[in-house]
C-alpha cells in the first residue's frame, strides 16, 4: 500500500483547476486573496468569542485582533483594485455580483435572527442608510469603487496620466462629502486602497523591473516596520474597525500613521509572505491558498452567519467558529449554492455554468503516476 501511494509525494503543482490554466488568473493574487479571507474570518471569530473585544484589555486575543484589523480589509480591497486594472467595468454585471448578494444575505440574516416581519423595512432601510445590519458592507463599498473607476478610466483615455490624476481628484472629492450615511464613509476610506491596487497592477512591469536588492529590502523591512509601528502606536490606536474619512485625518495627523501607513505595511507584509513561499518553492502552499482564493466571496457572504453556531469559551470558541465558518462555508457553496443557478445568482451573484467545483490540479512528474490512474485524468 505504501508503495502504491509513493507517487503522491512526487506530484508537483501546475495550476489551479477551474477556470483553467489558460484563464489568465494570477496564482499569486489568488493566494493573497485566500490569505486575506482567512484573516477576515479569524477576526470575526475573535469577535464572536469576545463580544467586548475592542474595548482595550490585556488579552492576547484583543492584541491579535487589533493587529489583524489594521490591514486585512485594506488588503482585500487593494487586491480587488489590482484585478480590475485593464478591465472594463460592467455596471450590470457588477450590480448582480455585488449588490444582489448584499441584499439577499441581509434578508437571510433578518429571517434567521429577527423573524419579525413588521420590522423588515426598518431593518433593510437601516442597513442601506446607516449600514446597520449590513454585514456585507464590503460588497456595497466595492460596487461604488467600481462606479468611481468608470470616471477614472474615462479620463485615462485623454491623457497619459489621466487615471492617476483621476484617482487623486475623486479621492479628494469623495472625502469632501460630509455625509455619514449610505456607506459613504467606507468609500471615502477604502477607495484609497482600491486605487493603490489598481495602480500597482498598472505598473507591475515597472515594479518587477526594480533592482532585486531594492525589492528584497522593501519586502524584508515591511513586516519589521509593521510590528515596530504597531507596538509604538498601540495605545493610541482607535476605531480600527471603523472607516476613517480624510477630514478626520486632517484634524489629527497622527491618525494617518495608524490607518494608512499600518495598512500599507500590512499589504506589503502579505506580499513578503508570498515572496517567501515562492522562494522556498512551497508551490503546494501557494496553490492551496490560491484555491481558497477562488472562493473568497463564497466564504465572505456566509461565514458571519455560520459562526453564530460556534460553541465553547475563549480559544475553544475561536477554534470552533473558524472551523464552522471555513468548512461550513465551502460545503455550503460547493454542495448547494454553486450547483443551481436559482441559488448561485441571488446568493453569489454569478451563474457557475462551467461547474460548481474548483479542483486543485496537480501535474505528476513523468512516470510518477500508475497507468491505471493515467487513464482517468479526472481522478484528482
Describe the protein.
Helices cover 64% and strands 3% of the residues. By secondary structure, the protein is mainly alpha-helical. The N terminus and C terminus are likely disordered.
Write a short abstract of this structure.
The protein has 17 helices and two strands. It has 380 residues and is mostly helical.
Layout of helices and strands:
Blueprint: E1 11-16, H1 27-49, H2 60-69, H3 72-84, H4 91-113, H5 120-129, H6 137-156, H7 162-175, H8 184-202, H9 204-208, H10 212-232, H11 246-251, H12 254-279, H13 283-293, H14 296-306, H15 315-335, H16 341-348, E2 360-364, H17 371-374
Antiparallel strand pairs: 1-2
Helix pairs in contact: 1-2, 1-3, 1-13, 1-14, 1-15, 3-8, 3-12, 4-5, 4-6, 4-16, 6-7, 6-8, 7-8, 10-12, 14-15
